[in-house]
Amino acid sequence: MNGLTYPLISPVMMHIGFIDIRWYSLAYLFGIVAAWFLILKNIKKYKIDLTKPQIDDFIFNITLGIILGGRIFYVLFYNFEMFLSSPLEIFALWHGGMSFHGGLFGAILGIWYSAKKFKCPFLLLSDLAALYTPIGLFLGRLANFVNDELWGRVTDVPWAVRFPSGGYLPRHPSQIYEAVLEGLMLLIVLNFLWRYDWVRKRHGLISGAFLTGYGVFRIFIENFREPDAQLGFIFSQITMGQILSLPILAAGIFIIFRACKKTSA
Domain containing 225: what range? Predict the structure, then answer.
């Protein structure tokens, strides 16, 4: 049978008493901590008028938004019938089930609340968050690979992987595609742009670039990713991930054009 053998890796890194420490949880945790540390480094390096306590509060607000938004969107758009029959499953985060699009929406609310509280530009805070969001995306997609989930469609490419939960059929390792494009590639491009004073002065340019890049990459990779079993294709060969990514792409392009027309004070 064609395809690489899936490396069996336990989704649980370690057990502490009755608590399971999972790779997926650690991906979220490390991504948030890394962003926290790097944002603090940035405000000092570029003399951005924000304090450490404000950044601490900012990170907390974003984290809360990611968790609530990611879970709520997953319930509403990806598995509503199951949660309708078992409502308490909504709170069982350890069983998995998070939507990036929902997490993004929740993070935006967290940024908006922080900007209002600190009386600082919303787009400045969103740029700082966008710079390092790809770290969490990169680690999260690697965790999806470890969890043997969100694999791709059946294929005959030489690098296809035979996932156990995918019926041991050779499939696109779409989690790796997403980790490289939505994670590593976006991280490199955004931080390269941030080095330039012209970019930093145009609040929103980094945010727009992130949204545009993510939208393009996600829509593209969905062509290789197996649609969620409970949803299938929404119509023709279009997936829910592609539908939810279209407004993200449109918003990103709009924000870029707006930022390029106006220089922030």
Answer: 23-261
Cα–Cα distance measured from residue 238 to residue 176, given in angstroms and rounded to the nearest whole number: 21
Residue 92 CA to residue 95 CA, distance in Å, equals 6
Task: Give every CB contact of residue 165 below 8 A, 6+ residues apart in sequence.
Answer: 148, 149, 151
3-state secondary structure of 232: coil
The 10s digit of each residue's pLDDT in 185-201 is: 999 999 999 999 999 99
The tokens for 129 are: 């968050």
Q: Give tens-digit pLDDT for 111-136.
A: 999 999 999 999 999 999 999 999 99
Q: What token pair was written down for 263?
A: 């220089």
CA distance 161 to 154: 9
Strands (DSSP E) found in the chain: 4-5, 12-16, 19-22, 161-162, 170-171
In a domain, 9, yes or no: no
